[in-house]
Amino acid sequence: MARPVLTLTTDFGLADHYVSAMKGVILGIAPNAQIVDISHEVRPFAIEQGAYLIAQSFPYFPKNAVHVVVVDPGVGSSRRAIVIEAAGQYFVGPDNGVFSMVMARERHRARAISNEKYFHHPVSRTFHGRDVFAPAAAHIASGVSAARIGRLISDPVSLDLSRPRVLHIDRFGNIVTSLRAQDFGARPRFVQIKSTRVTSAAVHYSEFDPGALFTIEGSSGYIEISMNQGSAAERVGCHAGDDVNFVP
Amino acid sequence: MARPVLTLTTDFGLADHYVSAMKGVILGIAPNAQIVDISHEVRPFAIEQGAYLIAQSFPYFPKNAVHVVVVDPGVGSSRRAIVIEAAGQYFVGPDNGVFSMVMARERHRARAISNEKYFHHPVSRTFHGRDVFAPAAAHIASGVSAARIGRLISDPVSLDLSRPRVLHIDRFGNIVTSLRAQDFGARPRFVQIKSTRVTSAAVHYSEFDPGALFTIEGSSGYIEISMNQGSAAERVGCHAGDDVNFVP
Amino acid sequence: MARPVLTLTTDFGLADHYVSAMKGVILGIAPNAQIVDISHEVRPFAIEQGAYLIAQSFPYFPKNAVHVVVVDPGVGSSRRAIVIEAAGQYFVGPDNGVFSMVMARERHRARAISNEKYFHHPVSRTFHGRDVFAPAAAHIASGVSAARIGRLISDPVSLDLSRPRVLHIDRFGNIVTSLRAQDFGARPRFVQIKSTRVTSAAVHYSEFDPGALFTIEGSSGYIEISMNQGSAAERVGCHAGDDVNFVP
Questions:
Q1: Is B21 helix (H, G, I), strand (E, B) or coil?
Q2: pLDDT tens column, B220-248
Q3: Contact status, residue C230 vs residue C211, Cβ threshold 8 Å
Q4: CB contact under 8 A, C39 and B31
Q5: Of A154, A180, A158, whose CA–CA distance to A167 is shortest?
Q6: With contact defined as beta carbons under 8 Å apart, do C15 and A169 qualify?
Q7: Using one digit for the tens of pLDDT, what is the confidence trace for A198-219?
Q8: What is the CA radius of gyration of chain B?
Q9: Which chain A residues touch B34 with a CB distance below 8 Å?
Q10: Cβ distance B14 to C10 under 8 Å?
């Protein structure tokens, strides 16, 4: 039988034991799970960064993969726990908008997680990653139907994603914008960010000499501002959330 | 057959190849092992931090899990290698106190690892994680009885854990103290740390406005000093090992 | 059946989703793979550091392990993708010298990866880790013969490795040199680095008092310059690539 795939995305970091406690709970329920870390380096409480990372990752995972995302400043309050079914996969986490980019892209159904039979007891007020999300996800990965986990809801929290902006700065200093290649239509792929106009476009990174800024279609279809072997983000001095614009 | 679960906790970091060499050795002996990283970001040589992390993690792992902990400034000297049996699980590492918090909490048996048949040869003088602990643990995970690994001992090294103190600062800046909820009896859960008195108590993190300090029962049952979406440790200016006290 | 072992070494870091996209692609092709991270903290574009890490790791992995290494400043340009067969294992990555230390040590065959049937489509110009190397490696791990992946070549890129130098600084500040114990013959194992002469030699780390520099045979057979519970690299002020010399 195929081994169930379960991914984790959190703002817990890798120095503490929190991620491993989630994995222990998962393996107690789904001993054959293939657990994959997407990232645990989401900035603390940065819901939009979590939303970006899971939306870029899920398309590369097989059918029935279960994705747990825990960026959860409201843990223990009345915010709901949810499971989203989309693209033949499952997404489990807090109802705070962290699945907005998945929901914007894919037809989906949302459920509020409510069946305490599938929780890890006692349920703490400070660590639902371990006590709610991980066990619910492991049960789904083991074949429990989402319908048994909770009831359908029509109003999962969704972030406004419409403003053209910097989605992410990656390790190399590439500036990932929310502009997609098709957004440009017939225009050249030039952009303005802060006081910088980028009016060169490349197909691969080593096409320009080190030091020159250019736009490039990144590996997820977004337009990125990059530099060959250098950090475009440092050069431009920008951060996630900053405005970007087409150059007309 | 259930796949054996084997965890790793070290001060090796993730930039070097040391952790992966241990994993290669493990998979050569126990090809079906589920290997889980607890943390490799223990501060170099910080035995007490390793002791804290493994003690917080093991309760969430299934029966027969084998935990390898390598924080080992005395590697290659005459310090013993040990395996502890406790709570239906196994703990493998140097005999330097790194299992003190597990042993203080659980009935246990300790053995000195001596059977070189279960080592990876040649055995270096600088990397027993790879050559002694990982292979011994993988053999136990594969079904070799601990009794074949080494003889019972009655005097494993144990750290003094009695002083009320800061156990750990986590990624969010939560200050985890060694005080437990039940330590407070009927008193309110207020504490003094450095020059700061914390005289508010919360049930979940978002109960207070950002910026206010409060105590809270953390996910492992310890009292923590926390702040909603901010670092209590930075505010207070404290470190692991600092004194804490009840507020009378 | 034994589960195929597949390792990953990249300069992608762990904060972004790039490594997980590779893992998703791998699990879609080889659902039972045991995936092991060697390191994702290679300095961006540091081919020689990648070459060092994979060469130190592979000897501890079982036969038929498949190693993917992606340190790839030339992605999307005309540089070739290759698979090396050596030591009963496979090495998949860009043809830029990243396998030089493996090839220098082991008899090997090299092939240029060309069969697009084994790629992930569409193939981007910026992320061959996900679209070329990961899927080719997963197919090999699943039993596809290397011969079906591409044709033999006789000229894989090889770095000049002959100069005595600092190979690596590890997390503890140990300075790993390219000198091997056998390089010293009958001479004492003393070395000169920058303005420092190290004329003490140890067998294990805690043999000298904290603060003293000594040489020691490291866990991979290289001579290292170390300090008990301190950073030799900080003391000496050196970096990867610096010259080292025998003390005559």
A1: helix
A2: 899 999 998 899 999 999 999 999 998 87
A3: yes
A4: no
A5: A180
A6: no
A7: 999 998 888 999 989 999 999 9
A8: 20
A9: 27, 31
A10: no
